[in-house]
Design a protein that fits this description.
The structure is a homodimer. Helix content of chain A is about 70%, strand content about 5%. By secondary structure, chain A is mainly alpha-helical. Chain A binds a DNA duplex (30 and 30 nucleotides) through helix 3. Chains A, B: This is DNA-binding GntR family transcriptional regulator. Chains A, B: Pfam families: FCD, GntR.
Chain lengths: ~220, ~220
DNA sequence: GATACCATCTTGGTATCCCAAAACGGTATC
DNA sequence: GATACCGTTTTGGGATACCAAGATGGTATC
């Protein structure tokens, strides 16, 4: 039974789903018994998750990476670089009809849609948009960045208005891309990323005390 | 004895130094005996090198990643995005005196300098320049991209003139950065990356037959 | 001579064992 | 009561054992 991928996937889900809190200590032995696997696949999973930035070494042991506000700000700069580059590439493509598929993703969310779905699609928008560029490296960069942001975005308190605003911005970006207006698309995407970062960092900084009370390690910017 | 890092480092050196050719098959057992380690550290090393793109899975086994010309072109686009972003950041810093340290790296190469040193410093220029930005993600992106390019750049036939040209371009980039002229620095860096890519891909495409004869797998663009 | 088939070997994946070092806890001393 | 010291336990790193699936090679058949 190929439990390697299974352990990795399950552990990642538990970390991203905050079932294991940021900052918590992990022992290989605990993971082993928790998933009924032996230490070899557990090791492989930890090594992979380490490169994703979800776990890190804590001396000799392992720790679920804390939420790091300074890191979130750096990621925003990184995202801006790679997402804008990908979007500009996409704008130069002859066939940009694939943006409609992404628009359909946005459309699939309405008031009945559970919060997890909004969260997932909000990330997939950026990931799939990057994939359209056809550049594997830009795509992976965006995907990995979104993975790192995932927990923080989940902890963010987002009101209905903020979500509506994000969706409107997403749609505007797609509209510019559909027209092939690279400069406009890039401007909109940059503003969207910067704005999202500001709201995210502000929200987490405000909630920091409460998050710590819930046992979540949050490192200030 | 912590042989894990040792195995990883030695294996990476052998791959980057082309002692193991692109496309060659690797068995965990061979690595094990070659470095006198057991399979646990070998496995860890392979998993790490896999994320660096230096080895890949070949069905059930492992293979040293071939040189992929299409990939080299994608990396150039990726590099342009992240290196330019990092350089622009650096140009906005109040204290840009650290560029002098990088200039000193360039100065340390003269006609007596062995080829390996030129090669290493040619990469370190870009890596250290990215580090100055202070953005860990941009830095890592550049470092990883240069690692992936390393073997291809080593195989490139570069004449004296090409090296001199690259060094002149490096110096011009530093000069613009020192002045804080972000637009100019970005323009120069973009041109440098694109030019390097063209020369690299052209050189490898021309030598492809010879490289294959040496047992190096080279995948066309 | 070519090909299909079978025994064998090799190999990656997994489980288990061993070890040294670090973490922990209890006790004795000040 | 605080602290320094020491024995015990836990833990990650490494080594080894085992297995099933795939590769290999030789043989027998046509």
């Amino acid at each position: 039974m190929s439990q390697m991928q299974s352990v990795e996937k399950q552990l990642r889900q538990m970390i991203l789903g905050l079932e294991i809190g940021p900052g918590e200590k992990l022992t290989e032995r605990w993971i082993e018994s928790r998933f009924g696997a032996s230490r070899t696949p557990v090791r492989a999973a930890l090594l992979r998750l380490e490169t994703e930035g979800l776990v890190g070494r804590d001396g000799r042991g392992w720790t679920v990476s804390p939420i790091n506000l300074a890191e979130l700000e750096q990621i925003a700069v990184y995202r801006e670089a790679v997402e804008v580059a990908a979007l500009r590439l996409t704008c130069t493509l002859a066939d940009r009809s694939a943006v409609d598929v992404i628009e359909a993703m946005l459309d699939s969310c309405d008031t009945d849609t559970p919060r997890e779905e909004w969260h997932r699609i909000g990330m997939d928008f950026h990931i799939e948009l990057a994939r359209l560029s056809g550049n594997e490296f830009l795509f992976r960069a965006v995907r990995d960045a979104m993975t790192r942001l995932s927990r923080a975005r989940w902890l963010e308190v987002r009101d209905e208005a903020a979500l509506a605003r994000a969706w409107a911005e997403h749609r505007a970006i797609l509209a510019a891309a559909r027209l092939g207006d690279a400069d406009q698309a890039a401007r909109l995407l940059s503003a969207h990323i910067v704005g999202s970062r500001d709201r995210l960092v502000t929200s987490l900084a405000n909630d920091r005390r409460g998050l710590r009370a819930r046992g979540f390690a949050v490192i200030a910017a």
